[in-house]
Amino acid sequence: MSDTSHDPKQGPVPSRRAFLRGAAATGAGLAAGGAAAQNAPDPLITQVQDWASGTGDGVDATPYGMPIEFESDVIRRNVEWLTADTISSINFTPIHALDGTITPQGCAFERHHSGAIELRKEDYRLMIHGLVDTPLVFTYADLERFPRVNKTFFLECAANTGMEWAGAQLNGAQFTHGMIHNMEYSGVSLRTLLDEAGLTSAGDFKDKWIYVEGADASSNGRSIPLEKALDDVMIAFKANGEALRKEHGYPVRLVVPGWEGNLWVKWLRRIEVTAQAIESREETSKYTDTLEDGTARKWTWVMDAKSVVTSPSPQAPITHGKGPLVVTGLAWSGRGAITGVDVTIDGGKTWQKARLAAAGQPMALTRFYLDIDWDGSEMFVQSRCHDDTGYVQPTKNQLRDVRGLNSVYHNNCIQTWWVKETGEAENVEVS
Amino acid sequence: MSDTSHDPKQGPVPSRRAFLRGAAATGAGLAAGGAAAQNAPDPLITQVQDWASGTGDGVDATPYGMPIEFESDVIRRNVEWLTADTISSINFTPIHALDGTITPQGCAFERHHSGAIELRKEDYRLMIHGLVDTPLVFTYADLERFPRVNKTFFLECAANTGMEWAGAQLNGAQFTHGMIHNMEYSGVSLRTLLDEAGLTSAGDFKDKWIYVEGADASSNGRSIPLEKALDDVMIAFKANGEALRKEHGYPVRLVVPGWEGNLWVKWLRRIEVTAQAIESREETSKYTDTLEDGTARKWTWVMDAKSVVTSPSPQAPITHGKGPLVVTGLAWSGRGAITGVDVTIDGGKTWQKARLAAAGQPMALTRFYLDIDWDGSEMFVQSRCHDDTGYVQPTKNQLRDVRGLNSVYHNNCIQTWWVKETGEAENVEVS
User: The Oxidoreductase molybdopterin-binding domain covers which part of the protein (chains A, B) (predicted)?
Assistant: First the structure.
């Protein structure tokens, strides 16, 4: 299927000659017998550098490597005033500095309620009980003997962008939208394990639930409809090829594609098939949305389609001045696949169709790009995505009209960055 | 497109009841009012554990995290006798312990000729010259202004499995097949940059070349046909979402999809469009295959279709005894996409069709699984892959018939693991 919407080879190639330094200008032309240099020669071209004449690290230097020191900006960051203690807090993925779609585990955001625990594979147990034919307990080694599945999914916290309900609060895409990551999971489908326990005694699946909890002190009990559990929920033990990191629930976590991050219980310990939702503390006091009339919207599990421009953004200003500029960002939908992303630089008066780096994948992050020629004047940059249900990402005003002003969760509205002539960007609201 | 070849939900669900401990047996049944325990209760079920009653790490503990200490087996390893010095050596990806298809940068194999260097983005320069209309020099910041592409590709060293030409040498998939990794690259297509420099003066592309070299002392000059350069070669600056690691060529490397790893020059410094191949030292003294008649096969760029079972394998023995067993491995082809993988446990007498975790992607790693019921007797486990050109992975004897016994590179033959009744595995050759 040929789709030029994500093929940069199609269409005219705008010349970027104005900003590139010709080889002649750098002095290389002199060596190659070209025209005389018009500017001072670039010593990085004309002189042998240290790294080109010495040796570097051997292959035994880093059995498991870390990023180079020059990338120290690309880290998880937390906001200290958010919660009382760092063990029951959240940090943010540095999405302003990433590209592609995979989020490295090492800088993928964390959300804990009693901190990240150490749980060895040998000590790991998963109990499946309740309305099953035979209650079962699985060791980690047991789980590795069941048929495996691999799938890439985003995980987004329901509170992502939550502070922005009150207005433009945090100055950076990492902080406004960084409660999100995207990983390739390997594991066993929950359906396989539930079939092993047997569901004949569960009766009609449509009105049944599972209650899931983790092995950490906060346990984070959650109720999930049995239909969803049998559909695409995974018991995952690898992410991006290797074991889950300690902070991502080692050795086993739940994966609930497209649904709120809090359901993706880490250090998964127990799954109980039940006749009704447990309505645990976390489910009733948190993770419900208060509407304008005071009633509460609960069990809003699905993460709505959402997108954000990651660059330019407050933490990723334009430093090269006017001319060719790459605008990029991420889009995702918990209801299916992203089918398109529009970008505006005039605050929504006019929209251009962005290029998807690849066709959207269901419930996974999609990378988009728009190549523009920046004239150096201020911009109000936004992105707006579409998913395959026909849903279009709304503005904040459109959301407020429906939800009122007391929402905490599920803020998937269009984000605006005010990009100034200096190239610096600021988080703003536009009407 | 529905394809049940990679859907574990289809078909009969073999009961694994024989090896699972029922919840009643663990003592959980007692608490739940079930049958009396038939075995000693499992304290990991019946007693509150430390990690469930204490707290763990806060969200500020690891701005950039590493794997948990219990995963210390999952590291790059090198073989000291391979080369004279670790700066001009290679290490191996721990493929025996990975799953999925993404290889984390931190444990992805490295091959250097003068060690891994530190090269800052500000100091980075890329020159494109030779048979171009306008020679150009790009800074790193310049590269970020061109239209980007994202694509996942495997990189395999031409010498991968090379020691095995002489017989079954190394006891582990990491060592026999670990000169390989698979990453999602973000960058600019080389075509875009060559178009910027202009190729009208290059004449007929079919007989033109590019010569590429890196900024490290060993520079690693290589000749690549211009046709390939214009096809799918990338200038990459991100892998798996984040910057390339120092050891993978930070900040910029070449990506030559499906072709020998040595072409994927790291710390890319220069690209010269030339009328003929340079035939540099590395290209003539190494990376050519000596055939049986003494002539040399050169410029064997494309990595042929290949596969290997990663588990069970010498470093990943079967520890659970007979019964349900997951056989898994990787398959790939430099000529296109993997269309199927067969697995045998009797040394090739009979073959079963393995399940692909997902449809094969061109020039990227494919994960396969086969779920079997192991009767506990010894096995001779092999995998054999097919790609979309119709090519079938050959046996070592078939390769030797064509190439003779003096080959060093491009050993893509079928690999055999002798799995004993104990579950331990050994590298063997079978006729």
Answer: 119-278
